[in-house]
Write a structure and sequence with these properties.
elongated, 6-stranded mixed beta sheet, alpha/beta, Nitrilase/N-carbamoyl-D-aminoacid amidohydrolase
């Protein structure tokens, strides 16, 4: 039965292309174009199948394997740990397809287009509250497209995820409609307008500046490599970190820098040292009248790490605490 369905209209190619493109989107290997392709391939494959359970299991298997591959080598905890993370994030990918498959033929056809993107957005939001977070959000795939990510200031990254997932469902609906009735779906035009709005808005925002005065910003690498060498934890006192931080802050101040940023996970520390390094850095920021973005890789006793960035004002106040696992809450 499965082989018959594969041969019908070459449905297996949806699986093959979807599997390959899902490997090379987000995670270790990132080709932003593929975030548009693989959701469409799997969605269209499921919509063309008569049965539900077997196709869902096949798509789930493809997503689990692809996630395991693209998370391979992402940590220094070993292959099994990386595979475990890949399986966890594949759940975020799988659930929206299950929801869509259950509801797709049970509501008005045009409204069924929104099942998948709404499911993607909802699942990402829910998983943002789980300790491991939702690194695998769709929007992360286009993190280097500075024009598109500008819209997140207004509507958040979930709007970008919704827009990317919406492309898959509109493309599937539109191609089926054109195939059966030879007409172009109105949703094609609506999506083009939406996409152009996002790109044009981002372009205008990058070109227009409310304040034309220049602010000097400096970036520093940090010292994480001093704590973790050859996958072994080495003892590094908080005072050694603070000497480095104080030196770089004073150098930045003398160079008339207004904002000093440390690179991602610039300081790998233990949980017990977190509050002290933040407090002492805040005092240095106040004393030297400079804004500081302090980035930390905090290791907790439960073998769990947090990737944080703390924005400290020139008055020594904590303005924002960014956590990569929970990017939007």
């Amino acid at each position: 039965m499965i082989l018959i369905e594969f041969n019908n209209e070459y449905k297996i190619w949806y699986l093959i292309i979807g599997f390959i493109t899902s490997i090379f989107s987000i995670g270790q290997f990132n080709f932003p174009l593929f975030i548009y392709i693989w959701p469409y391939c799997f969605l269209s494959y499921l919509h063309k199948m008569n049965s539900k359970l077997i196709p869902l299991l096949i798509v789930s298997g493809c997503l689990i394997i692809s996630n395991m591959i693209r998370w391979l080598g992402a940590t220094d905890m070993g292959v099994l740990y990386d595979f475990g993370i890949g399986i966890y994030f594949s759940i975020i990918n799988i659930i929206p397809f299950i929801i869509d498959d259950l509801l797709y033929n049970k509501i008005i056809k045009w409204s069924s287009i929104f099942i998948f993107p709404l499911s993607v957005t909802s699942i990402e939001f829910i998983f943002a509250f789980i300790p491991l977070g939702n690194f695998n959000i769709y929007a992360y795939a286009i993190r280097d497209n500075i024009h598109m990510i500008q819209i997140s200031e207004w509507f958040g990254c979930y709007f970008i995820s919704f827009s990317l997932a919406l492309f898959a469902s509109i493309l599937d609906h539109s191609l089926e409609l054109y195939k059966s009735k030879k007409i172009i779906s109105k949703f094609v035009y609506l999506y083009i307008i939406l996409y152009l709005f996002i790109v044009i808005f981002g372009s205008i925002r990058l070109l227009c500046h409310e304040n034309q005065s220049k602010i000097t910003i400096a970036s520093v690498l940090g010292m994480s490599n001093c704590l973790y060498v050859n996958k072994q934890n080495n003892t590094l006192s908080i005072d050694e970190y603070m000497k480095y931080i104080e030196k770089t802050i004073i150098k930045a101040r003398n160079s008339e820098v207004k904002i000093l940023l440390y690179s991602e996970e610039a300081f790998a520390i233990y949980e017990n040292d977190r509050d002290e390094i933040i407090s002492r850095t805040a005092n240095l920021a106040k004393d030297n009248n400079i804004f500081v973005v302090l980035s930390l890789d905090v290791e907790y006793d439960i073998d769990y790490n947090k990737n944080e960035a703390i924005l400290i004002s020139d008055e020594g106040k904590i303005l924002y605490n960014y956590q990569k696992q929970h990017i939007s809450i």
